[in-house]
Please model this.
Amino acid sequence: MSELDDSNPFGYAPEIWRLFQRAPNAGSFADDVQGVVSAEAGTPAARSVLRLALRFDGDRVVDARFRAYGCPASIAVGAYIAGWAQGRNPQELSLLKAADLRAALEIPEDRAHCALLGEDALRAVLTRYKEQQA
Amino acid sequence: MPIYLDHNATTPLDPRVLNAMLPYLSGPYGNASSVHRYGRAARDAIEAARVQVAALVGAEASEVSFTSGATESNNLAIKGLTEGRAPTRLLYGATEHPAILEAAESRRAHGWGVETIAIDAAGLVDWPAFQTQSSRGPVRVAALMLANNETGVIQDCARAARMVHAAGALFHVDAVQAAGKLPFSFAETGADLMCLSAHKLYGPKGVGALLVKSHVELTTQLHGGGQERGLRGGTENLAAIVGFGAACELAAAEVGQRIARWTELTTRLETGLRALSGITIFGDGSPRLSNTAQFGVAGWEGEALLMALDRKGIAVSSGSACASGTGEPSHVLLGMGWDRDTAFSAIRVSLGVATTDAEIDRFLAVLGDLRLQVAA
Amino acid sequence: MIYLDYAATTPLDERVFEAMLPYLKPDGLHGNPASTHGPGFKARAAVEAARRQVASLIGADASEIIWTSGATESNNLAIKGALEFRGLPKAGKPAHIVTSKTEHKCVLDTCRHLETLGARVTYLKPDADGRVSPEAVMAAITPDTALVSLMWVNNEIGAVNDIERLAPSLRERGVMLHVDAAQAAGKLAIDLAAVPIDLLSLSAHKLYGPKGVGALFVRRKPRARLSPQMHGGGHEQGMRSGTLAPHQVVGMGAACALAAERFEADIAHWSGLRDALWTRLREVPGVLRNGPAEGTRAAPHLLNLSFPGVEGEALRASLGGIAVSSGSACSSATAEPSYVLRALGRDDETANASLRFSFGRKTTLAEIETVARTVIEQVAWLRELSPLPRTW
Model:
């Protein structure tokens, strides 16, 4: 029964599985940390909620955190965006679309909504960032 | 060592098939519907078997649904095509297996016109009669077997299919006895549905398949769980399905050599039979399965002969195993127009992959002795 | 790897496998049980011996056991066969069935099918423990009621219905009773000599027997009458045609004999594991036990829990090498929350965040401890990860 490997029993795409298991950048920033912009997407009823917190220094992201409630793919999306955002400016951040997330994490068709969740959360952060700049 | 010459009733499991099944019998593979890894492994094995079964008859894997056996497949075909529809007519060959016969007859209570398709003395469809019958009014489904379980007579299904389709009906083919004994393809038979059984081709008992073309609408007969794309509920019989797949793969690879061997043995058998007096070989002259010979022995009742042979350690049949012990003569032979006495005198010898020249010779010798005893 | 999904399917017991093997080997015991010659007679003798073993587990007579391809077929045959025999449903002749919302999918699907043919079906809502009381059933009976179909033990939550009390009341009213006992056989005492059930479904692969075989008990006195659902050849007293697979029925017979022999040890073992796991997991804040907690009302072999605040798929994935179920295996491929838990009044999110642990003969306390530790850790981790406010 060697083909029955104990890791990844449900057959998630490798990158989803890796990010789900390690969940790098999970958490949030302490209240007194400066330059943090955070926003949320999704609903509990749809069984996926992603909260993204990006810490800006000037117009660059210097740190990022996420929290997620949802399936492994939506947790992986949160971890991926938090890692990817570091060092980028709002213009660059706005280029990340659901399709890019799906390609990067090999998210299957029936989980496309997890990638949309990521795009929505990032867009919500950027909207709030612009509001704060204005 | 007993001599088993009843392979059309059931075959032993090929040891290679058993080896393929063993990990799924004794291993921890789960319910194929479970999501966790064991369930996934089970599902993969079922899909691989589906491909093997499809390949034996040149079908698409997506056309294959697994069932508990040919009886269920035939019931699913006949009832699944007729249930919930305004009744018209349903036709089946006079020499069909009891599963088709009884499933079809059960439709009368639901308002269906149920008619038999005339079969001639040679075991073949009476074509002019069938032409007239099929064009006489609307027909939902016509059912014929590709090879008869008793006589081994092979039907020209492609020809029947043209008439059936011209009548706007669907064509169901019982290929249980033909599979593994005769190369053929699902498409070439013209069938819209076809049933197969594992235990007639060295696979396990308790599993079969119904092949269904994608354009055919069938209502489920086993409700619950949604397995087999909703057509047939129930936890999949994993080991048996794996065994069925393995048996089909072996049959596809070996059918040529099996036929060559059976043809030699059957020639030996029938040469021996013809040397005896009072022997009638049914379907003689018609295309027949190379492993099957059914014949009447004048002065004997088939059941008595069967028992006498059994006491000598030789297992044969007087017809279909399903009808054994009923005291009724073979409905197949009656359907071909033979009289009751002749039908009563029938026994069927069906050869297997391991049958030897010596077994045939022993059978002929014992049969010869038994006939002398009667004569004496 | 720790397998705690024995309520979905059990592995074959080694002794069952040994009993089956001679019928799978090419030499000698491969006959068709319907054949009238030596190999056929041997096969039939094996089939009849197995029938006695099954009958003996449930206090029935061997002649009351009909072989089928599994509990799904048994349930289909019982429900459709009983109605069809009485010529129901038919225009102008109303037919009523009483069942519950938490039956196995195949019973519900069969009932829905009969509804399309004109039958009227009452789907009783269970109480908060998941049980349907005899009083609730009796209150639903009408003069047209042709059949009550109620499971003995629920497959998802282990709720045990009081069939012993229900059956005599139905007998008195002259209403036929079918019981799906797929999860009950070997898990609680069944004595059909004492309990007037008319039809009872069994499955082999839930009690260490092979997949692909089951049985339907059909009472002889008074005679429960059925129309066959599978025609051809007249096997099984005309009630179920088709070549029998001796290796399968021999396996089911051996499994039943083993279950009878081990009955008390099995129950003590399973309920010990269940209670040990619950003792550990009840420490998880907010955890909810689905189904009854109390002795005879709860099946010994399973435990169903909801963990509010975590998402179910992530929870199951986070358990990695632990195979559990999120409800009945038959519907777990779909992402729908369990209809059984919904019928208990759980909301979608809580129903989704549930795990069914079911125990086997080889499950150890050490495994239970590993599972408890892993579940506690992972629930805490997923809750920590979640942005949702704490509600548990």
User: Anything to note?
Assistant: The longest strand of chain C covers residues 145-151. Confidence is low (pLDDT under 50) at residues 328-334 of chain C. The longest helix of chain C spans residues 246-281. Chain C touches chain A through 21 residues (CB under 8 Å).
